[in-house]
Specification:
- It is an enzyme of class 3 (hydrolase).
- Its EC number is 3.6.4.13.
- It comes from Patiriisocius hiemis.
- Helix content is about 35%, strand content about 15%.
- With about 600 residues, the chain is an alpha/beta fold.
- The protein folds into 3 domains: about 5-205, 3-Layer(aba) Sandwich (Rossmann fold); about 215-245 and about 310-445, no CATH class; about 450-590, Alpha-Beta Plaits, CATH 3.30.70.
- Helix 7 (about 130-140) packs across helix 9.
Length: about 600
């Protein structure tokens, strides 16, 4: 393996490498640094989170810019404030021996006038989030017309967060002959599109395989009932006493709720999500880095700035909406050569998604069981024993020992051990002695569940539905539980969903005469298990308006997927016969004759 000196770094940067304790470059650094130093070319680098991407583009940019000039020469765009600040701090550390270097962070939630003042002082490198950068360019506070290097860091996440138009506008103010370096953990089609649009014959560097998970991370899944998800989380925490983890939830509301529950139950927990102020986020992240918080509950967006190398576990309290996002989540652990564990808590209806994730990350999941109460008691006792064994004696206690020995003089060694350990054992034993078994059999994780029935519905993406919003719509219309509608697939003008057979009449009754925005919506039993066009539907029930047509149901973005509630606007009501009366944006039931 090459050394940093062999990669071509200058003496002042090598000194920073030594100061920071770096010994050998990571694979992505070894592959990209020589290319970026020797060539003026565009580059696409695909590497997992935690592989040292910041140094891979940071050192070459620092070596190439002119620190004697006050002109902005480098721009680094990142998806979140946390990541923006993290990159800025790292760039300053790498360039600590470059006299006159000014690396400025530009992000929302801080004073825009103070940031503009720092730019005026002559920032050779700007690290920015797209939203604030676009705003400051629009106010003519920043001039990037002379930049020579532009980095799109975590490009896939920036596009997932809807920054495509912002990035397009920002780059329109930059020179066409600049070098663009795109770094990403995954390569979805959106990233390929942006590379094609803004880059000229880019060199591609891939560390590992595209979209593949880290080899340092093992993957486990636990199948529980929908109502037992939080109890499962607590048991996983209790079964791993040294846990230092990030717990991922899908929404800001769930993130805050789970964190508050954990704190109320005595865990060192905290939440980080988009509704927190920058000061609140900074406080939470400081507590996490110093291990005052052991369980950080986070949304996917907020977690992009978490750069802590010794996270032991990632817990997927809920699976992400996009399967590719799982790669980013699991990449929070198993960093800097250490191993980590990614745990997934799923219900029976969600278990099939594990197979989909396995195909993408090319890693096998191990099915595991939630520990029983007695197993947790045992692990906690052994943990206490090891903690006592490894504790260094504080000799300041020596003066108190005679009095302590006097109090305990009537007990044998065995009795003392029992008393010490009973303190911890009793606490867990009392809590778990009547605890139920939380495990549920996943059964067949394919679509061929004999207790399930698959329906075709003439609603699809043309009606502004995705799988999550269609699931929410169906759940609310049918007034079923959170996991009673599952295996939802959305095509262009139609979709599929599963319910248990016992709900068959309920579904057919609900849609027997249902309209959405003036269009008749029908459901039909599908015999095509592949999620295809639903051949073998019931006779005499063709689809109305194949493409969705004019007057199709429109999605209310505040009511369907994408917000915290995920509820369908205008909740359905039941009349006689236990049939929903319809509801939602334009949904209504007509009564025949």
């Amino acid at each position: 393996m090459a050394t940093f000196k062999e990669l071509g770094l200058e003496a002042n940067l090598l000194q920073a490498v030594t100061d920071m304790g770096f010994e050998t470059p990571s694979e992505v650094q070894e592959k990209t640094i020589p290319i970026l130093l020797e060539q003026e070319s565009d580059l696409v680098a695909l590497a997992q989170t935690g592989t040292g991407k910041t140094a891979a583009f940071g050192f070459p940019m620092l070596q190439k810019i002119d620190v004697d000039s006050r002109t902005t020469q480098g721009l680094i765009l990142s998806p979140t404030r946390e990541l923006c600040l993290q990159i800025t701090n790292e760039m300053n550390s790498y360039g600590k021996h470059l006299k006159g270097l000014n690396v400025t962070a530009i992000y929302g939630g801080a004073s825009i006038t103070e940031q503009a003042r720092q730019i005026k002082r002559g920032a050779q490198i700007i690290v920015a989030t797209p939203g604030r950068m676009k705003d400051m360019i629009g106010r003519k506070m920043i001039d990037i017309s002379k930049i020579q290097y532009c980095v799109l860091d975590e490009a896939d996440e920036m596009l997932n967060m809807g920054f495509y138009e912002d990035i397009t506008e920002i780059l329109s103010y930059s020179p066409k002959d600049k070098s663009t370096w795109l770094f990403s953990a995954t390569m979805p089609k959106e990233v390929a599109t942006i590379a094609k649009k803004f880059m000229h014959k880019p060199i591609e560097v891939t560390v590992g395989s595209k979209n593949v998970g880290s080899s340092q991370v093992s993957h486990e899944y636990y199948v529980v009932g929908a109502r037992d998800r939080y109890q499962a989380l607590k048991r996983l925490a209790d079964a791993n006493p040294d846990i230092f983890s990030v717990v991922f939830c899908r929404t800001k509301r769930d993130t805050q709720k789970v964190a508050e529950q954990l704190i109320a139950d005595g865990y060192n927990a905290g939440a980080i999500h988009g509704d927190l102020s920058q000061n609140q986020r900074d406080i939470v992240m400081k507590q996490f880095r110093t291990r005052q918080i052991q369980m950080l509950v986070a949304t996917d967006v907020a977690a992009r700035g978490i750069d802590v190398d010794d996270i032991t576990h990632v817990i997927n309290y809920q699976l992400p909406d996009e399967i590719e996002t799982y790669t980013h989540r699991s990449g929070r652990t198993g960093r800097a050569g250490k191993t980590g564990v990614s745990m997934v808590i799923v219900t029976k209806s969600e278990a099939r998604k594990i197979r989909q994730i396995e195909k993408i990350i090319q890693k096998q999941f191990e099915a595991k069981e939630i520990p029983s109460g007695m197993e947790i008691c045992e692990k906690q006792l052994y943990h206490l024993a090891n903690s006592i064994k490894d504790t260094e004696i504080n000799h300041d206690i020596d003066g108190y020992l005679p009095a302590i020995e006097e109090v305990l003089k009537d007990f044998t060694k065995e009795e003392l051990i029992k008393k010490v350990f009973s303190v911890e054992f009793t606490r867990f034993y009392n809590y778990y002695k009547k605890a139920k078994d939380l495990n549920v059999s996943a059964g067949d994780m394919s679509d061929s569940n004999s207790d399930s029935i698959r329906f075709f519905v003439n609603l699809g993406s043309k009606d502004d539905f995705d799988w999550m919003s269609l699931k929410d719509f169906l759940r609310d219309l049918l007034e079923l539980g959170k996991d009673d509608v599952y295996k939802v697939d959305v095509k262009d003008s139609y979709g599929f969903f599963n319910v248990d057979k016992k709900h068959k009449e309920l579904v057919e009754g609900a849609f027997s005469d249902f309209e959405l925005n003036g269009r008749k919506i029908t459901v039909e039993v599908s015999t095509d298990r592949s999620g295809g066009r639903g051949r073998g539907r019931k006779k005499g029930r063709g689809r109305d308006n194949k493409g969705g047509g004019r007057g199709r149901g429109r999605r209310d973005t505040k009511s369907f997927g994408g917000n915290d509630s995920g509820k369908f606007k205008g909740k359905s009501r039941r009349r006689s016969g236990n049939k929903p009366t319809g509801g939602g944006t334009g949904g209504r039931r007509r009564r025949k004759g």
